[in-house]
Amino acid sequence: MDYLPQMKVLIKTVVRKFYEPHHSILVDIILENILIYDTELQKLMKMHNKEINKLLVALKEDKIIKYENKVEVYEDKRQYLRVVYYINYSEVKYVIKYKIYKITKKLEEDYKNSIKEGYYCTACDKQFSSLDAQIIMTNYIFKCDDCNGELVENGTINNLENLLNAKFMNSIQDIIILLKELDQFEIPSMDFFQLNEFKKEMLHKVEENEQPLEEITEEQFIINNDMHNEDIIIKQSSDEDIIKDTRNEMVTVKGISKMYSEITEEDKEQMDEDEYEKYFEVYSKYNS
């Protein structure tokens, strides 16, 4: 399934652009699980079945997700009706493709309709329909009936509407690109049983790729533990040496050198700015 990564990106992109955030979460869960039962979806969403059904209505109606009712017989011989949700990638691709086609056609029509037909006066900007302009035409010349200015054919466009259309078209370019990339793949239509088998294969591959933990013998454990303890002892010794060196470091008080460990509160008060800065550096080392 070489198409699967791109197909997932396409579906997620469409849902995030045209649906609510909770729809995105639902679709992400279904894509992650390939197919999922209603009871599992309830646990993941932490919602009741009725609430989930309300959220799924739009996705079902737009054929983004599919669902089937499955009757299962438990050990007590009782039958239970369960609903399983999944995504038919082939069907979803064509649904998205059709909707994008309809959107682009609508935008093209809006663009054509936004071009104002007729005439306008070059002097006072009064607008005239083609029929009105012909009625007031004099000697085969279109003249304004208000100011007698010359009329010219109107070719102006509703700039605001077309700006919005252009902005929208730009926002769906990533979807159009993904659809073109997916055209190179033959995406089969898969029902519940086929997707169920595919899910089993994927789980099997995951289990195969999991590396078992390497067993450690008692002897190796003792050696590793001893090495770890030695590292701790060395580190402690090193830290103690650093502390000793720091405590023996010299600082100055009114120009007179004194050991850091012998500095009193009175000495601190007598230090000038540079001396106290040096003292504070040593203090920071000792107390870090």
* CATH overall fold name of the domain at 3-87: Arc Repressor Mutant, subunit A
Class from helix and strand fractions: alpha+beta
Give unreliable regions as ranges.
Answer: none
Tally of contiguous helical segments? 12
CATH superfamily of the domain at 3-87: Winged helix-like DNA-binding domain superfamily/Winged helix DNA-binding domain
**How much β-strand is present in the residues?**
5-15%
Mean pLDDT across all residues, rounded? Answer: 79
Main sheet: which strands, in order across?
1-3-2
How much is the radius of gyration in Å? 39 Å
H/E order of the elements?
HHEHHEEHEEHEHHHHEEHH
Q: Estimate the helix proportion, in percent.
A: 55-70%
Distance between the termini: 56 Å
Approximate shape = flat
The number of E-state strands comes to: 8
CATH architecture label name of the domain at 3-87:
Orthogonal Bundle
**Biggest sheet descriptor:** 3 strands, antiparallel
CATH class placement of the domain at 3-87: Mainly Alpha
GO cellular component, one term: transcription factor TFIIE complex
Family: Belongs to the TFIIE alpha subunit family.
Pfam families: TFIIE_alpha
GO molecular function, one term: translation initiation factor activity
